[in-house]
């Protein structure tokens, strides 16, 4: 029997449990991650803290070893799958905060890019803050964004890109909106690990969101401003 089989998650203290979650996420152990999330919830951890301190924290370690060639795509896929298992437990808890309805958002990952964990997290947090969110998934060409905007008429368009090769596509979407005279109808927020504020400005977005919490704050801010303008 290996050492790992001897570990009883519920017997670990919080700090040890979070460390163990980092290991289990790294090893792509979905059931263990789900069990640990439930244990932390029973211990009255806030869902947001579990998300950021345990799950995102663990994924950061995976990301570093992926970058350094220690982990490869199949292992990272397993880690992502384990992370999604944990996120699915937290999703209803983050969404049901009873926050008043704030506005609406269409969000999707751009063409050529299949990363969706960050986008999903933003969607979850936005729902929790009272936004209605239409998630159009991954690998979206400009037509998908335009169709979704037409159909749902959201306040905000959110775009996610995790690759330096796909982030320029955000400009394609924004430029097309400009060409079609639709740019000013929406607040455009962008995010993803390789982006920064300068890039957001350069492509003509209204805001660059470093993380999901910033996305929520910016979205609230823009919607409040829009309502003030309408009321003025
Ligand atoms: Co990919 N991958 N990956 N990968 N992957 C990165 C992004 C990379 C940085 C890893 C590395 O080398 N260190 C690197 C990109 C390098 C670069 O371009 N500079 C990389 C690469 C190279 C690749 C492939 C090309 C690998 C290959 O095939 N050789 C390939 C590309 C596939 C494709 O998209 N076409 C690939 C594939 C994959 C997997 C499929 C294995 C898997 C994705 C699974 C999935 O998402 N379902 C994967 C993963 C998991 C990662 C890392 C390890 C983790 C990403 C993640 O989920 N982070 C990542 C390393 C890293 O980012 N450090 C990496 C956790 C998440 C919560 O954070 O997504 O940053 P993040 O989201 C944050 C913020 O950025 C922000 O808020 C979120 C929450 O706080 N945010 C937004 C994100 N989107 C937003 C949208 C908004 C607002 C805020 O709208 C308003």
Automatic annotation (TrEMBL):
Q: Which UniProt keywords apply?
A: Cobalt, Metal-binding, Methyltransferase, Transferase
Q: Where is the B12-binding N-terminal domain?
A: 8-102
Residue ranges occupied by any B12-binding domain in the UniProt entry: 102-232
- In Gene Ontology terms, what is one molecular function of this protein? cobalamin binding
Give the EC number(s) listed in the UniProt record.
Answer: 2.1.1.13
> In its keyword annotation, does this UniProt entry include Oxidoreductase?
no
Specify the superkingdom: Bacteria
Q: Which InterPro entries does the annotation name?
A: Cbl-bd_cap, Cobalamin-bd, Cobalamin-bd_sf, Met_Synthase/Corrinoid, Meth_synthase_dom
Which biological process, per GO, is one annotated for this protein? Answer: methylation
Q: What class of enzyme is it?
A: transferase
Q: Does the keyword Metal-binding apply?
A: yes
One of the record's GO cellular component terms: cytosol
Protein family (similarity comment): Belongs to the methylamine corrinoid protein family.
Write the protein's name: Methionine synthase
What is this organism's lineage?
Bacteria, Pseudomonadati, Pseudomonadota, Alphaproteobacteria, Rhodobacterales
